[in-house]
Amino acid sequence: MKKHIFKDPVSMPGSSLSPEEVYAGAEPVSGTPGHAYLLRRGIGADIATTFGVRYHGDFAGRPAVIVPLHDVQGNLTSLHGRYLSTARLQDKMFTVGRPGGVISLPESWRVDPLIVVEGLFDALSLAVSGWSSVATIGRHVPWLAEVSRGRTVWAAFDAGRPGEANAESYRKQLLGAEVRRLPPPPRCKDWNTALVKRGREAVSKWVASQMAAGEAMG
Fold it and tell me: Is position 77 within any domain?
């Protein structure tokens, strides 16, 4: 499986605003159209706010919920937006800024177990279910190898072949860590689907059971 190489712009197209400036101009998500969008996906404004999620009415041309990514020192590197709606041939998301950041609670990468997911709603869904994680949005995070050295990393990517391929890619990248697969529950393509279909208690128990089974297998 060929790895996609992203070429995110370093500043906002059409305005040249930096990610920091765009983020400063965004609204708190509670009470906005972004709030309704989050609720449809099972995410409350309280959880979203702890991740820094805000609402922007014109994020490269369309309304979106946006979230900052931070590097290992806690510096904002980029903004990732999920559009509230998409028409045919439109992208579902847009990212602006420098590479090397993750979506997470402050220093979630220090927390054990270290769970790595791909998207914003994977991280939010696990957080609703009581589990901390970091989301890479499919980008390479060069410092992740160092902070995961000597630790177990749970590769909690989507179900099916793409998720398996991502997990295998991380086994090759994180040579100093033990990378174990943590798939979503059966008949759920990702963690947000699992949250919406099964609820947070079921997702929480599934994660715990998969980790226990993985530890028992050594």
Answer: yes
Q: Which residues pair with 144 in a beta bridge?
A: none
Q: Is residue 10 part of a domain?
A: no
Q: For residue 93, what is the domain's CATH number?
A: 3.90.980.10
Containing domain of residue 138, as a range?
A: 108-217
pLDDT tens per residue, the chain (218 residues)?
345 567 899 999 988 899 999 999 999 999 999 999 999 999 999 999 999 999 999 999 999 999 999 999 999 999 999 999 988 888 999 999 999 999 999 778 998 999 999 999 999 999 999 999 999 999 999 999 999 999 999 999 999 999 999 999 999 999 999 999 999 999 999 999 999 999 999 999 999 999 998 776 65
Look up residue 197 and give its amino acid. K
Contacts of 201 (CB under 8 A, 6+ apart): 129
